[in-house]
Amino acid sequence: MDFTFYSLLFLATTLVAFVVALLAWGRRTSKGAKELGILMTSVTFWSFIVFLESAATTIESKVLLTKFSYIAVVTTPVLYLMFVYRFIGRKRLSNIRTIMQLMVVPFIVLILVWTNGYHHLIWSKFSAIDASTNLITYYHGIGFFIGYLSYNYILMTWATFLLAQFILKHQKTFRSQGWIILIASLCPWVASIFYMLDVNIVQGFDLTPGSISLSGLLFIFAILKVRLLDLVPIAREALVENLLEGILVLDDINRLQDINQAAKDQLGVEQEPILGEDFSHINVRLTGLREALLSHESIKIFECSDTDSSKFYKITKIPLKTKPESRLIVIRDITETIEKQKEIQLSEERYRSLYTMFRLMADNMPDMLWAKDLDMNYVFVNKAICDELLKASDTEEPIGKTLEYFLSREKNKQPQDPN
How far apart are CA 217 and CA 80, in angstroms? Predict the structure, then answer.
């Protein structure tokens, strides 16, 4: 092994990436921290292999080590995209099937790397070892440009677009963190372009791993100074995940864009992950509730049987102005309210039944029966007192009136009677 100045640069890159991975892992409960930790662990492996390759003294050993480095080289862009998705609050890349689809091209490139001796699609040839730098130049084949470089640039372009969009949308809250991540992600871009255009200051020196050192320093600054992983978009989790109401978002073709834990519990979700899936095909325990959510009614009271009891849900659907045909759905458990209303209704029915029975008994009694309030107004009378004393037309007429009212009325009818 021949450790040169360039070997020390790659070693420094390795150490910085490792420190960032440790810092991220220490904050793994924060959103995006785990993904950043995995990303920087991959970068650490990549940089360490490049460090060993720069110190190797034969072309065969350098090429072999480079093949090992490609395990991280081809996966790092995918891991970076996963980190960006988590940072900006999206979860779609947590879908195992999606990740496996993204890894198809890197896997093919990795096979081409290890079988390059048969087809030379990744490296067409290698230069001799430079005596002053102990580096070699890799001359790339068409498989490198099509399978590796183009695909990586597509992923990096998409990640950069998402970050820029997020920064513009959340300028006040996450502007500092977003710009730091964006600048850090551009460093490998610039280094890669310099390398591909062969404008390096040293022949055979790949700036890409070295540039990750600068990216790592920016990440360290962001973590320690602007609380990158403490202030990533946690507002959604702090609010939505702690709501008692179920919250979910469906797009124009009923794909599930977001859902909180309360909605999962209410529906009885039986599969994970579910984001990005057709909501009508997701396995849930309460299929009736799912169908109610998919209906076109804006507000709906839905009753369903859950275990041994009935549940009542109020479903409110709110159109999203920024995304036509998409809607925010709120599921509120109103079982307790409905049960109280039923108890009140039952009590009223019992009261009316008892009152009807009492009224029937009272009106068939020969004795006069009445009740008055503190102001001596009648609040209840039976038929006997109406007929014999008050001369009222029915039992409702005396309510709210006094005995003097009826006596005065009868006296006015018979003014000739001195009594």
Answer: 16
